[in-house]
Design brief:
Layout: H1 2-29, E1 43-54, H2 63-76, E2 80-86, H3 89-93, E3 101-105, E4 122-128, E5 132-134, E6 163-168, E7 175-181, H4 196-217, E8 221-227, H5 238-244, E9 253-255, E10 264-268, E11 276-280, E12 285-290, H6 291-297, E13 301-304, H7 309-314, E14 323-328
Parallel strand pairs: 1-2, 7-8
Antiparallel strand pairs: 1-14, 2-4, 3-4, 5-6, 6-7, 8-12, 9-12, 10-11, 13-14
Helix pairs in contact: 4-5
Length: 335
């Protein structure tokens, strides 16, 4: 028996080594999410993205371009997408994971006189089907032909509405969301506020201020996302000052993108013009929020998703990079 114990011991030892090696190899092949136990949602991920004429003939995309857009969405995995410059819901559906989102296009889509026949830039939302949501009327007063003179009634033009939805997370209060795309041409405080573009933007600021005032009066949580076409993070921004003045104190309305490190490399392809590359280091896409949302965002993350330079050359992307907010939700026992 003395001579048999050593071979049996050696055999058992080799079997243990083989089992450990096999398990390690199997574990390395399995992705982490396959082991992950699904928990109640604790973070709400909101992405705002101007996709530059997506689905419109003004900016044709190839199948490879469409896959790239889809890849960005899958990588960020937003619960809510506040979009700008989408021509139609069918185009947007092509880049969304199958059956995961409901699309809420701007009410302006149903107003033929306020649109164009050859392509439109609609605002709106794509929201995960797991979230409860209501769809009030959009903020249509952002659409004006020109800034009205004193006492003049504003006339509708073909500018973008503020798309409006209310989301009811698993925990915390309802969240009132706007997706906006404001007038271009008045990018900084250096621009003359007497210019036509700045006067229109100034009027749109009054409209947004009225909406914010309603939310604050009713003590409702809100988040305005989108392309403000203005560098509101710059010191002395008159646009943000006009929005922030609606609160009873200076902290009632916050700019969540104030300290975001902007770095967006894009390719500009304009009809009849030479292709141009630009590197934008100042944001015009922002998140503006009520104080409670801003307080929660301090425990989360706000950032800009940048495109690799080689991909900007290879694909027809957008002249805007997405901005992303990862917003922690309060625990159920804290409500």
């Amino acid at each position: 028996m003395v001579h048999l114990r050593q071979p049996m011991f050696l055999l058992m030892f080799l079997l243990i080594l083989f089992w450990n090696a096999s398990f390690s190899a199997l574990a390395s092949e399995v992705k982490p999410h396959e082991f992950h136990h699904v928990k109640p949602q604790q973070v709400l991920t909101i992405m705002s993205w101007n996709m530059e004429w997506f689905g419109a003939p003004q900016r044709p995309r190839t199948a490879a371009d469409t896959r790239y857009f889809s890849g960005i969405i899958r990588q960020i995995a937003p619960d809510i997408i506040a979009f700008q410059e989408i021509d139609n819901s069918s185009a947007l559906q092509q880049i969304l994971p199958d059956q995961q989102y409901r699309i809420f296009m701007s009410d302006r889509q149903g107003q033929l006189r306020e649109g164009f026949q050859d392509g439109n830039q609609y605002t709106g939302f794509a929201v995960k089907r797991t979230l409860r949501i209501t769809d009030p009327k959009d903020l249509a007063d952002l659409n004006i032909r020109h800034a009205p003179a004193s006492g003049e009634k504003p006339r509708r033009g073909r500018l973008r509405y503020g798309a409006y939805v209310i989301v009811y997370p698993e925990s915390g209060p309802p969240l009132h969301l706007l997706s906006v795309h404001l007038k271009s041409g008045c990018f900084s405080r250096a621009a003359s506020q007497r210019s036509a573009s700045c006067r229109v933007l100034g009027y749109q600021a009054e409209v947004l201020s009225g909406w914010i005032s309603q939310r604050l009066t009713r003590k409702e949580s809100f988040l305005i996302s989108g392309d403000f076409n203005h560098r509101m993070a710059e010191p002395g921004s008159w646009l943000f000052t006009s929005l922030a003045e609606q609160g009873g104190d200076k902290d009632s309305v916050r700019l969540l993108t104030k300290d975001v490190n902007a770095s967006c490399y894009v390719r500009l392809s304009r009809t009849g013009k030479k292709t141009e590359y630009r590197h934008y280091k100042k944001l015009i896409d922002h998140f503006v929020a009520s104080a409670d949302i801003a307080g929660a965002a301090q425990r989360g993350l706000v950032y800009q998703f940048s495109f690799p330079r080689e991909d900007v050359s290879r694909y027809n992307l957008s002249d805007h990079c997405p901005v992303v907010l990862r917003l922690p939700l309060p625990s159920a026992h804290m409500q």
